[in-house]
């Protein structure tokens, strides 16, 4: 079964058409990169999956649940990592993880919490520090640990590597790949062609409200990938 199935999705804002017949299917363990320039509809796509927006036409299905009709049930399967993961500033990473997982109805002991954060790449020292001292990459690690604790089937990432230095970005790729290897489906909205090449199993270029290309990045180098992207932008 598809973890995510978007079928003929149309979404307008007034006279502006953001999505125009978008089809997107994602299975367990797959990393899909959604590429598109500013205003292409990436955030709209994510908001539809989360059920924050409803499509004018078409269906958004998450693990067999209609995200527009049952957004709360659909969201139980989803972990969303926004560009800036919001954490309680004065609480440590460890306490943030335990707090957010408690909200999700889970009970994690200190040992398991620390293990999850370590798997997400946060050092033991950092786990005990207040989150206000964290970089963007460290916040994301806590977000990913929360997603793993909840056994989310679908991970949504919005511009995950923008503003990360190359080593944080590589570390992030490693953690996302590990999540995918455990069966999580990953949808990543991004401009980062370099990371895509390393991390994504499939790349879609969002153009005129649809996924215009579905590319296997392994078959292309960065230059060819960039070329396809630029060609799409100019048509
Ligand atoms: N709430 C809204 N009201 C009106 N127009 C909107 C709204 N949300 C999005 N749009 C329009 O829909 C289109 C798609 O926007 P969206 O934010 O999904 O693009 P994006 O690919 O995420 O862009 P960016 O890379 O800048 O974040 C744009 O033309 C945008 O102006």
From TrEMBL:
Tell me the ranges covered by the ABC transporter domain, including all copies.
4-233
The answer on whether this UniProt entry bears the keyword Transport reads yes
Q: Which domain of life is it from?
A: Bacteria
Q: Which UniProt keywords apply?
A: ATP-binding, Nucleotide-binding, Transport
The entry lists its GO molecular-function terms as: ATP binding; ATP hydrolysis activity
User: Do you know which SMART domains this protein is assigned to?
Assistant: AAA
Record's keyword annotation contains Transport: yes
Pfam (any one)? ABC_tran
Tell me the PANTHER family matching this sequence.
Answer: ABC TRANSPORTER ATP-BINDING PROTEIN ALBC-RELATED
Name of protein: ABC transporter ATP-binding protein
> From which source organism is this entry?
Steroidobacter agaridevorans
């Amino acid at each position: 079964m598809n973890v995510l199935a978007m079928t003929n999705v149309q979404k307008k804002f007034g006279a502006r058409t953001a999505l125009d017949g978008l089809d997107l299917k994602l299975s367990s363990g797959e990393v899909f990169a959604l590429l598109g320039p500013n205003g292409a509809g990436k955030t709209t796509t994510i908001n539809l999956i989360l059920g924050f927006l409803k499509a004018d036409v078409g269906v958004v299905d998450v693990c067999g649940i209609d995200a527009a009709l049952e957004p709360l049930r659909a969201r139980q399967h989803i972990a969303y990592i926004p560009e800036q993961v919001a954490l309680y500033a004065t609480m440590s990473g460890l306490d943030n993880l335990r707090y957010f997982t408690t909200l999700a109805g889970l009970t994690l002991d200190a040992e398991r919490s620390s293990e999850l954060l370590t798997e997400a790449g946060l050092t033991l020292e950092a786990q005990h520090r207040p989150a206000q001292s964290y970089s963007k990459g460290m916040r994301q690690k806590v977000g990913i640990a929360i997603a793993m604790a909840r056994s989310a089937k679908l991970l949504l990432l919005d511009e995950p590597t923008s503003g990360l230095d190359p080593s944080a970005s590589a570390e992030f790729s490693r953690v996302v790949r590990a999540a995918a290897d455990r069966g999580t489906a990953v949808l990543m909205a991004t401009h980062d062609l370099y990371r895509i090449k390393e991390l994504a199993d499939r790349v879609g270029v969002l153009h005129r409200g649809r996924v215009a290309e579905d590319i296997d990045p392994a078959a292309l180098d960065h230059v060819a990938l960039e070329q396809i992207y630029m060609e799409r932008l100019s048509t």
